[in-house]
């Protein structure tokens, strides 16, 4: 069995960690292969180093090295390098990079500098974190540099700033006019991305940001068509609990693209390929949406622990199994 997930940073990583926890009960030899396609639109070059926040959050979370309180960066981190950079007067200082995290960016930048594609670099980093032993392949959505920028108005002047500056420095509080994703139209899916969608038994959309995480992956030419064409049931998990994102600024991102912060509206962004949709019990998504939209399952969606995330992932797989059986597909139970 092959499971493919599209993922952003913290929400995606916690969901996939829960999925792996759930699958760890599977008999040896029957363990599903999991391919994670990570968003690279958040990537940024800082101090001459290429930083890939979503890929790193996935690596650290799945590898057991993440700072769990933050959800990103390394556990037991020190900050000597950034302090020295500050003393030197280097900028920017609004993005906190720890020493162990710096090592990832130095190594990645060294390999990229030698001409290695990001997918191969990511595979090398995944080896460090033991992803292969867990049956996981982590793929960047593309090897081509893609960067999300946000057009903001400040003092009556419009300008584009990097997504990280908007998200981290301004906490998404600067009024955004629109997102501009440099390099996306010309990007090609990284090796294995389209195959992972086409040959999957189940495709999962974790509760990642639908605009600046999943939305960016869907914008890589060919990805959306592959999702429309796959024989696998596509099951998503709403990123909204109690009508709000659990963390991050998905509500602001949705407003910026003119979409309501509701599970129904988010499902609408995936309407052309979404087969099943998990929403929170109190979600106001109308039952009438069942007839026209994806199959709906209500269950608590707060990923308060690895076990809670595992149960959500199990529900997503159960729904996929029902949908696969209904459409005459094969057995998808792990
Ligand atoms: N998020 C913050 O809110 N503040 C930070 O200083 C910060 C630093 C950082 C460093 C490395 C990394 O991989 C992630 C980091 N993040 C930080 C999280 C991250 O930038 C965003 O949450 C995501 O890009 C949005 O998905």
Question: Could you explain the architecture of this structure?
Answer:
The protein is α/β, with parallel strands linked by helices. It has a domain at 2-43 and 54-64 and 116-143 and 191-246 and 258-326: Rossmann fold (3-Layer(aba) Sandwich), CATH 3.40.50.10680. It is built from 13 helices and 14 strands. The protein has helices at residues 10-23, 53-63, 80-88, 99-113, 118-128, 163-169, 193-198, 214-218, 223-229, 250-256, 263-269, 289-292, 306-326, and strands at residues 2-7, 33-38, 44-46, 49-51, 136-140, 147-154, 157-162, 176-182, 202-205, 234-237, 240-241, 244-245, 276-279, 295-298. The strands form four sheets. The chain has a seven-stranded parallel β-sheet. A three-stranded antiparallel β-sheet has the order 7-6-8. A two-stranded antiparallel ribbon has the order 3-4. Helix 1 (10-23) packs parallel to helix 2 (53-63), helix 1 packs across helix 13 and helix 4 packs antiparallel against helix 5. It starts with a strand and ends in an 8-residue tail after the last helix. 46% of the residues are buried. Ligand FO1 binds at residues 8-9, 42, 53-54, 56-57, 72-73, 95-97, 101, 164, 167-168.
Blueprint of the fold:
Elements: E1 2-7, H1 10-23, E2 33-38, E3 44-46, E4 49-51, H2 53-63, H3 80-88, H4 99-113, H5 118-128, E5 136-140, E6 147-154, E7 157-162, H6 163-169, E8 176-182, H7 193-198, E9 202-205, H8 214-218, H9 223-229, E10 234-237, E11 240-241, E12 244-245, H10 250-256, H11 263-269, E13 276-279, H12 289-292, E14 295-298, H13 306-326
Parallel strand pairs: 1-2, 1-9, 2-5, 9-10, 10-13, 13-14
Antiparallel strand pairs: 3-4, 6-7, 6-8, 11-12
Helix pairs in contact: 1-2, 1-13, 4-5
